[in-house]
Structures are given as structure tokens and as C-alpha cells.
Write a structure and sequence with these properties.
The complex is a heterodimer of chains A (about 100) and B (about 280). By secondary structure, chain A is α+β, with helices and mostly antiparallel strands. Chain A contains two helices and three strands; from the N terminus they run E-E-H-E-H. Chain A is flat and about 50 Å long. Chain B has one domain: Ferritin, core subunit, four-helix bundle (Ferritin), CATH 1.20.1260. In chain B, helix 3 packs antiparallel against helix 7 and helix 6 runs antiparallel to helix 7. Classes of the chains: A alpha+beta (about 100), B mainly alpha (about 280). Chains A and B meet through helix 1 of A and helix 3 and helix 7 of B. Chain B: This is Phenylacetate-CoA oxygenase subunit PaaC.
Chain lengths: ~100, ~280
């Protein structure tokens, strides 16, 4: 549940996860999190906290409690299967000249 | 080197920062543009506005209501410090003084900032009210000044305008949120707007200097910005459901900062800003 800031004396702002795209053609990458009272302020805070050294050209923010994660205790069930299946990597192709970001 | 090759958190050295190259407007009029006496005085006014405000906002660092806001105000302060450096550097070319000479070795009567910039931070709402009014004014000012016939002022204004655009947005967001937040935040925002409003008028005073410079297309007549300023302020305050003090009882400060007359708040601010440089002249670190 997101709380409204100021509702009680002890409440803080809700948590937001921040994704920044460093350049045209790249995807947004998770860079960290922050507190903000609402989404508009979260984007502005993200600009101030995570792009002050020219890191990005675009920002996404997502309420932290809107993210559903895989169960850390179910690592085996989730991630064991790909082990030993190297053929799934596209390593047998040669990269065309001048292609970046692969 | 493309942007992608620069490690944003790589080693930063003082050499790489090359502070002197950071002056906006450096080289806009060829190397070593020298300001006339009138232009220097005008640049001093703009530079002092920016420097005093930067110093004020710097006082919030480690004291802001939230960590995120701490950084936001710090960033805005640094933007303003950048504007001040460029403007004071240019102002100093007339008399052979450096930006540091002007920042650290002038006493109160030699400062040319308007009164609103030296008014105390107060609570967060007072700082936001001051930010809202001055950023709205500065955005219109720099917008017009970017087509100044003085290439150095035009270049400084063009860069500053983009940064002030964000300052205005930041303050507007907070005016709306404090006004529409809790009873306490709304009460504080209303008080802050009423307390700050008397100092707005001075920003739009014309005098002989700006009239002379404006006739050559160098400076912007402050009075010519008033209508656009009022329009934006009215719009935001209407959305915030805050009314400005009006009528014959509304107090308007006389102003006088452009002539070196200041309120009691500038002295202590300058003392804190200048003490280190004056105790250790020429020190570097």
C-alpha cells in the first residue's frame, strides 16, 4: 500500500524504482531507487539523483510495490534448467561489422 | 569519443574539469571580450542575484525535508553558481577584477542584487515561494536576453534559460503540492506567498542604466517582463487556490538593491560566504 506523506508523523514517502536510458538505441536500465510523494516528483527526483553526470536521455519510474519479483528461495526451480544448455547462446553466429551494443 | 565511451563515474580530475572553460559565453564574442562600464554594472546585477541565491540554497544542504530534496536544491544552487561565475567574470573584465575578487572582496553597499534574493530561507515553503517567483522572473528575463546584441550576455542567457526552466518547474510542483497537501502545508504555503510577495515588485523596476542599455538592445527592460510574469504566477496560484495580497493594505517593499541599499539579511550572508577567502587570501585547495 502506498501511503500519503504527512498522514502520520512517522510516515515517509513511498519508494520508487528508477530506470535510465543512457543513449538512443539502448534500453532503460535499473539504476536505483528513491523516495517521492508521487510519480511526477519521482521523475524529477530521479533527474536530480541519477542524471547529474550526464548519465541519461530518458527516465522511467515505477512504484516499488508494483514490481513482482521471482522468489529468492526458488532459485533452483527457476534458474537451474538453463545450466548445461549452452547451445541456447547465439555464439555460433558472426557479428556483422559496425553493429554496436550486442 | 562517443558519449557511450565515457564512463559517467570515471575518474574526474581538476584538469579535466578545466574550470575556466566552463564559462557560458566564453569565446562568444571572440577571446577576451571586455564589458563596457554600463554592461559590467548590468552583468553585476544579474551575477549578484544568482550568487546570493546560490548561497541561500546551499544552506539547505543536509537540512532539507528529504534526502531527495536536499540534492534537488543543491543542484539548483550549483546551476545558479554557474550563472553567477559567468556573469561576474564578464562584469570583472571592465575593471580587471576576477570573479573571486567580486564575490569575496566587495562589501555590502557594493552588492547589486534585488532584495528578494537576500530574504531568508525561512521554512521550506518560504524557500519554495521565493524560488517560484524568482525562477519565473529569471526564465522570462533570460529568454529575452538570449537575443541581446551583446554576444556574451546572449550566450550566458541562452544556457541559463534552460536550467532556470527546470528551477521554475521544480518550484511550481512544490507550490501545488504544499498548497494541496495537509492543512499545515497549505497554511505554510499561503503564509510564504504573502511574506514573499512584497519583494517581487523590485524585480521589475526600470532605471536609467537599463533604459540606456535596452535602447541599444543589450539589456532587457525589467518592466517589459511583468505581464508575462503575472500571467504565469496567476495561473499557478489559481490552480493552488492561493490568493495574492491585494488592495491598498498590501505592503510593497521599496527595494534599492540595484543601488547598493540592502535589508539586514545580506550582511550576515556575505560574512559567512566571504570569511574563509578573507582570512586566507589567495589560498588554494
Amino acid at each position: 500500500m502506498m501511503s500519503t506523506p504527512g498522514e502520520t508523523g512517522t510516515e515517509s514517502w513511498p519508494l520508487w524504482e528508477v530506470f535510465v536510458r543512457a543513449n538512443r538505441g539502448l534500453s532503460h536500465v535499473h539504476v536505483g531507487s528513491l523516495h517521492a510523494p508521487d510519480s511526477d516528483m519521482a521523475v524529477r527526483n530521479a533527474r536530480d539523483l541519477y542524471t547529474r553526470r550526464n548519465e541519461g536521455v530518458s527516465i522511467w519510474v515505477v512504484p516499488a510495490d508494483a514490481i513482482t519479483t521471482s522468489d529468492p528461495d526458488a532459485k533452483g526451480a527457476y534458474f537451474e534448467s538453463p545450466a548445461g544448455k549452452n547451445y541456447r547462446h547465439a555464439v555460433y553466429y558472426t557479428k556483422s561489422e559496425g553493429v554496436k551494443h550486442l | 569519443m562517443s558519449d557511450a565511451d565515457i564512463d559517467p563515474h570515471g575518474e574526474v580530475t581538476v584538469d579535466r574539469l578545466a574550470l575556466a572553460d566552463e564559462f557560458a559565453g566564453a569565446g562568444a564574442a571572440g577571446e577576451g571580450a571586455v564589458a563596457s562600464a554600463d554592461v559590467a554594472e548590468y552583468a553585476l546585477r544579474l551575477g549578484d542575484d544568482a550568487l546570493v541565491l546560490a548561497q541561500q540554497l546551499g544552506m539547505w544542504i543536509a537540512r532539507a525535508p528529504e534526502l531527495e530534496e536536499d540534492v534537488a536544491l543543491g543542484n539548483i544552487a550549483l546551476d545558479l553558481l554557474g550563472h553567477a561565475r559567468s556573469l561576474l567574470h564578464y562584469a570583472g573584465t571592465e575593471s580587471g577584477r576576477s570573479e573571486d575578487d567580486l564575490a569575496y572582496w566587495r562589501d555590502e553597499p557594493d552588492w547589486r542584487n534585488a532584495w528578494i534574493f537576500e530574504q531568508p530561507n525561512g521554512d521550506f515553503a518560504h524557500t519554495i515561494a521565493r524560488q517560484f517567483f524568482v525562477a519565473t522572473y529569471l526564465f522570462e528575463l533570460y529568454g529575452d536576453l538570449s537575443s541581446s546584441t551583446d554576444p556574451t550576455l546572449a550566450a550566458i542567457a541562452a544556457k541559463s534559460m534552460k536550467e532556470v526552466d527546470y528551477h521554475r518547474d521544480h518550484a511550481t510542483q512544490w507550490v501545488l503540492r504544499l498548497a494541496g497537501g495537509t492543512d499545515e502545508s497549505r497554511r505554510r504555503m499561503i503564509t510564504a506567498v504573502a511574506d514573499t510577495w512584497p519583494y517581487v515588485d523590485e524585480l521589475f523596476h526600470d532605471d536609467e542604466l537599463v533604459e540606456r542599455l535596452a535602447s541599444d538592445g543589450v539589456a532587457v527592460l525589467p518592466s517589459s517582463l511583468r505581464e508575462r510574469f503575472d500571467e504565469i504566477v496567476d495561473q499557478v496560484l489559481a490552480e493552488a487556490e492561493i490568493e495574492l495580497p491585494t488592495g491598498r493594505t498590501a505592503f510593497i517593499a521599496s527595494g534599492g538593491g540595484r543601488r547598493g541599499r540592502h535589508t539586514e539579511h545580506l550582511g550576515p550572508l556575505l560574512a559567512e560566504m566571504q570569511v574563509l577567502a578573507r582570512q586566507h587570501p589567495g589560498a588554494s585547495w
